[in-house]
Every structure is written in C-alpha cells, then in structure tokens.
Design brief:
Blueprint: H1 2-21, E1 25-27, H2 29-36, E2 43-49, H3 54-70, E3 75-81, H4 88-99, E4 104-108, H5 117-120, E5 130-135, E6 140-144, H6 150-161
Parallel strand pairs: 1-4, 2-3, 3-4
Antiparallel strand pairs: 2-5, 5-6
Length: 163
Amino acid sequence: MLKTRYSITFLLLLSCFLLKAQEPKVIAFKELQAMMDRNNDTTYVYNFWATWCKECVAELPNFEELNAKYQPQKVKVILISMDFKRELDTRLKPFILNRKIQSQVFLLNEPDYNSWIDKIDPSWGGSIPATIIINKQEKVRHFFEKELTFAQLEEQIKSIINK
C-alpha cells in the first residue's frame, strides 16, 4: 500500500514536471528579435503558426520530425504561436500537450502585426504558416510564406550544415 502511494506521488510529480516543461512562454517582439539576432553557428528554424490555422497544424509534424532528427546537431526548431494570449490556457497549452509537441514553443503577444512583420522579412504579407531559417555564421536567412514538407525543410537544413 505504501509503495503504491509513493508510485502515485512520483507519477503525479513527474506529470507536473512534464506539463511545465512544455509550457509556452509569452514573449514580445523585442524578445523574438533578440533570439533571431543570436550570432552563433546554430541554425534556427522559426515557424510562425496558430492552432486555428489548418495548414499550420498540418505541417507541425514536419517541424517535430526535423527537431527530433537534427537535435544532436546545431539545429533548433522554435515554434512561434500566433494564437491569442487570452487563449493560452484554454487552447494553446492543451494543443501542445495533446499533440505531444517537443519543439520549443513561444506565444508572440504582439497584436499590432504591422509594427513587426516587415522586421521578420520585408516580403512577408502576414499570412501563416511562415518559416524563417537563420544561421548567422553562414550568413543564411531563408523565408517561406507557405506550408513546408519535411523534405523541403530537410533540404534547407542540409544545404546549411553541409557547407
């Protein structure tokens, strides 16, 4: 009986830790910009998406696969949610948990899109999904305003890491 209690307590603590580990952080654009300006040899894949965007949700497994496959290398997938902050607890967190999202997730809390979209890429019309791949050391900055397949993502990553 005592062993069962300890097992249940351990499982509860572990599940709390796992839930906390996947909790998205709410950020402002200046924080995102600082992340995107990191000057190192890591390739960063930033995907702008939302739970309400059908194409975004359809391509998320491709980013998860990329994240898992290239995790041992200097490749980092960062998912930037465009969901509303007021729906963080009711929509975004359950979505991440139910889909078992392992990539790092941030919720961008910048409702005035016109003030920052051009700073991501001047060609961005504002639609999602959108992805930007950056490697400062290799002077790479590729922007895509469309849904991407795993093959397309991997082709981009290989062209950078195999230089």
